[in-house]
Structure formats: C-alpha cells, structure tokens
Amino acid sequence: RPAGVRRIAALSCRQMQRALEKNFRWCDCLVMSAAVGDFRARKIAPGKIKRSNKKRLKLELVQNPDILRLFGRKKGAKILVGFALETDNLAANARQKLRAKKLDLIVATLMKSDSYPFGRAAMDAWILEAAGRLQRLGKINKPELARILLDRIEALVVY
Fold first, then answer.
1. Cα–chain-centroid distance for residue 85?
2. Which residue from 1, 15, 31, 125 could staple onto 81, CB 3.0 to 4.6 Å apart?
3. Is-contact 108 126, C-beta < 8 A?
C-alpha cells in the first residue's frame, strides 16, 4: 500500500457510512471501489434460517443509502472516485453517475459473460473524467488499473 494511504474495512453499507462519517474530514481523496448493494434485507436473522415445512420464504428488501452521493455533497476540494458496473448504456449511465454524485473520476465496466469484473480476473474498463474525457482501457488487470487510476488522481492534484 502506498505511503499515506489508509484502508478502512467495513462489512455492510451502513458500517461503511459510519466509518466515512468518522474519517472523511481528514481525507484528500476518496476512492469508493466497494461493490455495495443498492438494497439490503429489512431484517437480519439472528442465526441460520433452517428448513421447515414452509416451501417459500419472503425476503423484504429496503434501499441502502447512496454513500457516494452523500459524500459528494460534502466533498469541497476533495477528489472523489467511484466505480460503476453497468448492464447497458455504459457511457451514458457512467456520465450520469459522475454528475449526480459529484465525482472527479469514475471507472466503468459493462457486465458481460466474457468480462467478469469481480475477483482477480481482468476486466474491460473505461475511465470517465468530470471534464468529459472518456477513455477505454480495454481488458486490464486490477494492478494496472490501480496504477492508471493513481496517475489520474495525481494529475488532478498537481494541475
């Protein structure tokens, strides 16, 4: 990990939001690479839900907070970087997220059967800047994507 970088782990969206509320004021750049679900279960079972005579189980979902949008409103001079996994209209959807969440950069990838973005696999990535530049990086591994992203962040700080 680069010098001066602090990683804070969180297991849920709400834990992540609380950690950010405690630490956001001291950061210069926030890179939100976690794949936080848009929804969560309304109730969390205290233990395993065992099979019973019931053939069906009703799962009720509620919306998670949009953390990046919340902190985009508070960003000031901080640099905010987000990620977007899209199933269609990659450029248009990424551009809309970038504006709505007040991001400086967004890394976008299209969910396809030959380009799975999770885990160690290479992914087909694009970077969109707030200034409007969209660049396709092509099939790229995570360490190389991280280097490119850090170079872009550095350029935003320096210039």
1. 9
2. 31
3. yes
* Among 128, 66, 130, 143, CA closest to 103: 130
- For residue range 3-17, list pLDDT tens digits in order: 877 778 888 899 999
Asked whether the beta carbons of 65 and 13 are under 8 A apart, the reply is yes
Identify whether the C-beta of residue 124 lies closer than 8 Å to the C-beta of residue 107: no
Helices within the chain (DSSP H only): 13-23, 67-72, 90-100, 142-158
What whole-number distance in Å separates Cα of residue 67 and Cα of residue 35?
12
* Alpha-carbon gap, residue 1 to 113, rounded angstroms: 31
Cα separation of 132 and 44, whole Å? 42
Q: Tens of pLDDT along 15-74?
A: 999 999 999 998 889 998 877 888 999 998 899 888 877 788 889 999 999 999 999 999
DSSP reduced 3-state for 41: strand
pLDDT of residue 108: 92
Instruction: Name the residue among 92, 87, 141 with its Cα closest to residue 110.
Output: 87
CA 153 – CA 159 distance, rounded (Å): 10
Q: Is the pLDDT of residue 79 over 70?
A: yes
